[in-house]
Amino acid sequence: MLIQKKLTGAMANYIIRRFKTKDYDIVRLLFRQGMIEHLPTTCIYILKLPRVHFLLMVSLISLLLASKSYLLSFMCMTAILAAGWQLMKGEFNHYVEQCYMEDLMDIDKSYMEKKKSCFWVVEFNGRVVGMVGAQLAEDSDDVMVLKRLSVAKDQRFKGIARSLSTTVIEFAKQQGCKSVTLETSMVQHGAQKLYESMGFTKTDVCTFPTLLGRFASFSVFTYVYNIETP
Ligand SMILES: CC(C)(COP(=O)(O)OP(=O)(O)OC[C@H]1O[C@@H](n2cnc3c(N)ncnc32)[C@H](O)[C@@H]1OP(=O)(O)O)[C@@H](O)C(=O)NCCC(=O)NCCS
C-alpha cells in the first residue's frame, strides 16, 4: 500500500503521505478555511436571486413608508444585510462543526483504521498544505468516496489537488473499486473545474437540505469517476 509519494517536476519538494495523528489540528483548520472561503461567493449568489431582490425591495418600500426617512430606511437596510451575512456565516460554521463531529472528529478511526479507507496530507518543507480522504461508500463495497479535499490558499494552482485526487483514484483501483464519487457545491467553481478536467462526470444535482438551502435553491452536485477494468 502507498505510504509516501514524492512528487516530481515543479512539485519536487512536495510529499504526499498518509495522515499521522500529529496532523489532526492542521487538517481540521485546512478544512474550515477551505469551507469558510466560499461564504462571500454564496452571499453574492443569494443577493442575485430575484426572490431576494423582491424581498429587499418590499422591505425598503415598507421602511420608507413607515419612517418617511431615507436615512433611517438606509440604516435598517444595512442592518438587514448585516443580519443576512451573519445568518449565512452561522450556516457555514454549523456545517463545519457538523463535519468536525463526524469523520473529522477521529481521523485515525474514521479513515486510517477503517477497511478500504485512507487519509493523505501533502507536506511542503515540513508544513502540511493539502489533504484528502477516501472512504468506502456506506451502502457499497466497490464505490470509493473522495472527501475533504482542501489545499492551503498560498499553494493553489500547482497541481496539488490533482495529485491528491489521483492518489484517491489509484487507491480505489487497488481496493478493487469500480468508481470514485464525491459531492461538491454550486459555488465551488475551482473544484468543479478540477473534477471535470480529471474525467469525473456530474451525475446528480440536489438541494442543500436546510431551510436556507431550500430557500436559495443551493445545489449540491454529485460527481462520479468510473474506473476502467482491464
Ligand atoms: C479546489 C481546490 C482543492 C483546488 O486546489 P489546487 O491545488 O489549486 O488545484 P490544482 O492546482 O490541482 O488544479 C487542478 C485543475 O483545476 C483547475 N482549478 C483549480 N482551482 C481553480 C479555480 N479556482 N478556478 C478555475 N480553475 C481551477 C486548475 O486550473 C487545474 O486545471 P489545469 O491543470 O487544466 O490547469 C482548492 O481551490 C481548495 O482547496 N478550495 C477550497 C476547498 C474546496 O473547495 N475543496 C473542494 C471540496 S469538494
UniProtKB/TrEMBL annotation:
GO molecular function: N-acetyltransferase activity
Pfam family, one: Acetyltransf_1
UniProt keyword annotations, A-Z: Membrane, Transferase, Transmembrane, Transmembrane helix
Matches recorded under InterPro entries: Acyl_CoA_acyltransferase (IPR016181), GNAT_dom (IPR000182), NAT_camello-type (IPR050769)
Coiled-coil features, chain-numbered ranges: none
Keyword Transferase: yes
Domain of life: Eukaryota
Domain N-acetyltransferase: 72-228
Keyword presence, Transmembrane: yes
Name this protein carries in UniProt: N-acetyltransferase domain-containing protein
